[in-house]
Amino acid sequence: NKMGDYRGQQFILFLFFMIGSISCPKECICQYLAVNCTGKLLEEFPTTIPLDTRQLVLAQNKLSYLPSLELHFLSDLIYLDCSSNTLGKDLDFTFVSMIKLIYLDLSFNNLTQVTFGTFSQLSSLVVLKLSDNPSLMEIEKDSFASNTWLRHLDVSRCSLMFIDTSTIRDLPNLRNLGFGENPWSCNCSFMELCSWLKESDPANITCHSPVFMHGLKMLEEEQEELYYKCYIHFSNQDYLFLGLVGFGIFSAGTVLAWLMGVCAVIYEFLTARGEDDKEEEETEN
């Protein structure tokens, strides 16, 4: 009957929960609410992780992806270390059900970008480590808009050239920011970030481009130099552009004046000729 089927389903779910709660991946070490799989050369996410696990360490393996379905069942997880793997695929919505996660380490991987969907569900996140991802070239604006509790963010030693100031400025609890050893493009649009970082640690930013800023750390004097270059000083290209514009205006004015002169001469000629024709007609009459 239906009641029996319903109780049978409940029993199966109960067994599944109990098995998942007491089992441990054979490659890992399990202690109370903690699973450690460090350095086991795992190529796939380990199965049979206890469902009540609070701390999961998967560092120093060969994981190329994180299965969102398996992570979905680890909803009590508060600490996840996936450093030193080969994660490089799109991680958007991978951590959908991990709303209790506080610590996430994705350093030393092959991440390429961070979007709003990557960490949007991690509303309790406090520590996020993304350092040493040499392929990480883009962090989209508002990528951390949902991570308002974030206190520690590390994006050092990646391939970032630019990051929108609002992406980090709007994190009210941010206290520790790692920015160093990225190929930052210290152009005029970078000035806003530099100004915001005055109260942080701008010495961590070393410019890669443009040429006149290459290798310089964004200390106060370098910021003043960039401000001078952007808003006060005219470069050779600026002078060339202004010269071309001036020459164009002068040339256009000269041509216009010549045309007006030609028109005036033609008008005078036609007027004078009309008067002569009129005098001839009066003489004949």
From TrEMBL:
<keyword id="KW-0407">Ion channel</keyword>
<protein>
    <recommendedName>
        <fullName>LRRNT domain-containing protein</fullName>
    </recommendedName>
</protein>
<keyword id="KW-0406">Ion transport</keyword>
<keyword id="KW-0812">Transmembrane</keyword>
<dbReference type="Pfam" id="PF13855">
    <property type="entry name" value="LRR_8"/>
</dbReference>
<keyword id="KW-0677">Repeat</keyword>
<keyword id="KW-0433">Leucine-rich repeat</keyword>
<dbReference type="InterPro" id="IPR001611">
    <property type="entry name" value="Leu-rich_rpt"/>
</dbReference>
<dbReference type="InterPro" id="IPR032675">
    <property type="entry name" value="LRR_dom_sf"/>
</dbReference>
<feature type="signal peptide">
    <location>
        <begin position="1"/>
        <end position="30"/>
    </location>
</feature>
<dbReference type="GO" id="GO:0044325">
    <property type="term" value="F:transmembrane transporter binding"/>
</dbReference>
<keyword id="KW-0732">Signal</keyword>
<dbReference type="GO" id="GO:0005249">
    <property type="term" value="F:voltage-gated potassium channel activity"/>
</dbReference>
<dbReference type="InterPro" id="IPR000372">
    <property type="entry name" value="LRRNT"/>
</dbReference>
<feature type="transmembrane region" description="Helical">
    <location>
        <begin position="239"/>
        <end position="270"/>
    </location>
</feature>
<feature type="domain" description="LRRNT">
    <location>
        <begin position="23"/>
        <end position="55"/>
    </location>
</feature>
<dbReference type="GO" id="GO:0008076">
    <property type="term" value="C:voltage-gated potassium channel complex"/>
</dbReference>
<keyword id="KW-1015">Disulfide bond</keyword>
<keyword id="KW-1133">Transmembrane helix</keyword>
<keyword id="KW-0472">Membrane</keyword>
<dbReference type="InterPro" id="IPR051432">
    <property type="entry name" value="KCNMA1_auxiliary"/>
</dbReference>
<keyword id="KW-0813">Transport</keyword>
<dbReference type="GO" id="GO:0099104">
    <property type="term" value="F:potassium channel activator activity"/>
</dbReference>
<keyword id="KW-1003">Cell membrane</keyword>
